[in-house]
Amino acid sequence: MEETLHFCYNNGVRTLLKPYFPSSHLHFPSISRVRPLSSSILSSKTSISLPKKPSKTSKFHPLTPHPQHDLPPEPHSEPQTDPNCQFREKMLYLESIGIDLFSLVDGYPPIVSSSLDNIKSTVDYMRSMGFTPIEFRRICGMCPEILSSRVTEIAPVFAFLLREVNVKASNLRRVINRRPRLLACDVEKRLRPTLYFLQRIGIEEVDKHTSLLSCSVEEKFIPRIECLERIGFSYRDAISMVRRFPQMFCYSIKDNLEPKFDYFVMEMGRDLKELKEFPQYFSFSLENRIKPRHRACVEKGVCFPLHVMLKTSEKQFRDKLEVSLLPIDQNFDDCSLRNPWKFRDRCHI
């Protein structure tokens, strides 16, 4: 039997495989030397293919490392700033302009996270608009949100007041000092819709009522108009009243409008027409002005129009009481004296 050796090429290295013997009883003589392999054996048992010769024009690409050895670059780490240090710098800066940071935190905690650079930019911008340090401190005390606002959010408010509300440049500081919250309002979402509503109901000189611009139409204006309708006024009369006295939009329904209206009807016995003509009635204190003067009129048996009874000074009111006394008919009973509006036609107007 002819001896056959098999070669296996593993990664280019020739390895001699141990021959397989099907039976153990066969005996072979010892081999003193390895016989040369014939070409037929190599051709039948192995297939060797040589690589093609590279052309002269071929380019060799640089070797790249194995993917598993590709490590991501280490991120560039910046030095972390100590939060306590940032807070200390912010506190010292605000103290340098006369503002106590701790007093602001009580009313507006987000001020703690405000950027010091943004605060400095806001302070510089307000100075450029002509606000004094005293004015700016007062503004921050009333509306600390300004310190957390960016200049890009504050500047459009000034432009809106000047161009659309027609506030004079000389009055701009007075408008902001009177209502600092205007600077914390968004022009598109709050200021402009409120301006359009006030103009639509007939309030033309909105520049005289700029404090209303920061109010919500849905949450502030509409409920007060509905309250006037609920107590007996028509929608047209309610609009006429707020047009005549727009500040009524700012009064509380529960603490102002309702108790004063109840006293007007139940105790004073007056007609709604008087309220329509003089809605400023709601601006006077019920305990300090309305009740004392009404009682004085009842005691003296006189009747004044609302604007005369409430708008005059205390001295003028007492003088009018003295000169306006009328002889009381003996036929009137004590009840009439306690409620002189029952004989209003006989009162001095």
From TrEMBL:
<comment type="similarity">
    <text>Belongs to the mTERF family.</text>
</comment>
<dbReference type="InterPro" id="IPR003690">
    <property type="entry name" value="MTERF"/>
</dbReference>
<feature type="region of interest" description="Disordered">
    <location>
        <begin position="45"/>
        <end position="83"/>
    </location>
</feature>
<keyword id="KW-0809">Transit peptide</keyword>
<dbReference type="GO" id="GO:0009507">
    <property type="term" value="C:chloroplast"/>
</dbReference>
<keyword id="KW-0804">Transcription</keyword>
<dbReference type="GO" id="GO:0003676">
    <property type="term" value="F:nucleic acid binding"/>
</dbReference>
<dbReference type="GO" id="GO:0009658">
    <property type="term" value="P:chloroplast organization"/>
</dbReference>
<dbReference type="InterPro" id="IPR038538">
    <property type="entry name" value="MTERF_sf"/>
</dbReference>
<feature type="compositionally biased region" description="Basic and acidic residues">
    <location>
        <begin position="67"/>
        <end position="79"/>
    </location>
</feature>
<keyword id="KW-0806">Transcription termination</keyword>
<keyword id="KW-0805">Transcription regulation</keyword>
<protein>
    <submittedName>
        <fullName>Transcription termination factor MTEF1, chloroplastic isoform X1</fullName>
    </submittedName>
</protein>
<dbReference type="GO" id="GO:0006353">
    <property type="term" value="P:DNA-templated transcription termination"/>
</dbReference>
<dbReference type="Pfam" id="PF02536">
    <property type="entry name" value="mTERF"/>
</dbReference>
